[in-house]
Structures are given as C-alpha cells and as structure tokens.
Amino acid sequence: MFLNLKREDAARYSFLLGLPAILGAGVKELLELRKAGLDTQGWEVLGVGLASASLSAFVAIWTLMKVMERFSSWPFVIYRFLMGCFLLLIVWLGVFDPNM
C-alpha cells in the first residue's frame, strides 16, 4: 500500500509472497514422511488431503480477492481486532492455556 499499489494488487502480491515458504515447508514435510516409511494407504490419504486443502485454499483466496476488489478491508480489520481481543480474554480468564 505504501508503494501506491491498488488494494487488490497489494493483496495478490502478499499471497504470492507466501508461496515459496509454503512450498518449502511442504517439500520438507514430504521428505520427512518419506524417511518415516509412510505406506501406500498413507500416501493416498495424504494426496486426498492435499487436493482438498488446495481446492479450499484456492476458493478462500479467490473469494477474499473478490471481496477486496469490491469492498474496503476495514470490516476484516475490525473482525481481526475483535477476534484478537476475544482470544486474549479467554487466555486471561484461563479458559484456554496456550502452553498446553
């Protein structure tokens, strides 16, 4: 936003910026699973999970990009602020212990 990019372009750039880290983490995990000797059924389950997670991530990002094109990001900012306050409150009240 500081580079005078449109809101949609800045959001697209931020998503693309995260792809190398996500890809690297995925490759690392696949290598660890290969070393652990995952059986055929495990690889099949992993493949189905990867496909469904990829599809749902694509739909979520596509939807968010469409929302960013039409509306301001302030409702999302307010939602994130309120969710953060709520999470801090439940940790402070002891309902959830982050050290578990």
Task: Describe this structure as you would to a colleague.
- With 100 residues, this protein is mainly α.
- It has a domain at 7-71.
- The chain is built from 3 helices and no strands.
- Helix 1 runs antiparallel to helix 2.
Quick description:
Helices cover 80% and strands 0% of the residues. It is mainly α.
In terms of topology, how is this protein built?
Blueprint: H1 7-36, H2 40-70, H3 74-92
Please indicate the percent range of residues in DSSP E strands (runs of 2 or more).
under 5%
- Mean pLDDT, all residues: 86
Low-confidence residue ranges = none
What is Rg?
Answer: 19 Å
State the secondary-structure class. mainly alpha
Q: What is the number of E strands?
A: 0
* Global morphology: extended
Helix content: over 70%
- Helical element count? 3
Give the termini distance in whole angstroms.
Answer: 38 Å
What kind of sheet is the major sheet?
none
- As an assembly, this protein is single chain
Give helix and strand order, one letter per element, not per position: HHH
